[in-house]
Amino acid sequence: MALKSMTGFGEGAATRAGIRVAVELSSVNRKQLDIHVSLPRNLVTLDAQLQQLVRAEFSRGRVSGIVRVEAADGSMGAVKVDQRLAAAYVAGIRKTAEKLKLADDLGAQSICSLPGVVSVEQEEMDADHVSAVLGEATTKALRGMARMRLAEGKALEKDLRDRLGLLDNLLKSIREAAPTVVSAYREKLFARLEEAGLQDLASDERVVKEVALFADRCDISEELTRLKSHLSQARKLLRAAGPIGRTLDFLCQELFREINTIGSKANEIDITRSVVAFKTELERIREQVQNIE
């Protein structure tokens, strides 16, 4: 099953029994499924139906949108002019014009354009009649959004696979450099002993023990094994069915934990460079993962 993004947009419309319903939906990333769709005030009882349709399709993301309902013949409904409000506007404007000595050029068109003067009273529609049409229009919008989320997911999957490949290469570099950490420390220790004229202590039991303790402290074999395992799991997840975003995010956290441990243990220039590059690339992966369902 292909990976899905949480970013998408879809729209759908349906007409039946003299009613036309248009639905626009969009989604962005969110940890949980969060649905906010605006319905006409007289049809808010249909919100549960709409929520059920969305939840059947998606499990994560913030889904927002708007539902428009109108007569199929395009009729606007009854136009109502608030005569009292219009008269109040006229009285106020004329009083202001007289006080400021301005020309009184009021016209019907300018008065009707003032806020609240003209309104359109839509014919009340029965929620039961709208329900079936809403379901059809919403399904179309959800399919469109699902297609977009899938297309975006394919692009994300390719990007993630490429970046996981980069992490593999960096992990290989760290693994190859790891054996040099102990030998470099031993050489530095012996050089200091020689500088101090204590080269005869190179084979001293205490020196040998110190080198052994250092080797144990900077051993990163376990971290390397876990990093390899986590990267393998991430690749398998990209082929898995169902939502994988949260699991990938968890793996990113574990990868960060292991690479940070390596950085603190292996104080060697080549390993440090690889660790920094690994963390930079991993941060980019984690940013992408936030948008995966």
How many β-strands, per DSSP? 6
Terminus-to-terminus distance:
12 Å
- The count of helical stretches stands at 9
Which percent range describes the beta-strand content? Answer: 15-25%
Question: Quick gist of this model?
Answer:
The protein is an alpha+beta fold and 293 residues long.
Structural notes for this entry:
The chain is built from nine helices and six strands. It is α+β, with helices and mostly antiparallel strands and 293 residues long. It has three domains: 8-75 and 123-149, GHMP Kinase, N-terminal domain (Ribosomal Protein S5, domain 2, 2-Layer Sandwich); 78-121, no CATH class; 153-289, no CATH class. Strands 1-2-4-3 form a four-stranded mixed beta sheet. A two-stranded antiparallel sheet has the order 5-6. The longest helix has 51 residues, at 127-177. The protein starts with 7 loop residues before the first strand and ends with a helix. The model has no long low-confidence stretch (mean pLDDT 87).
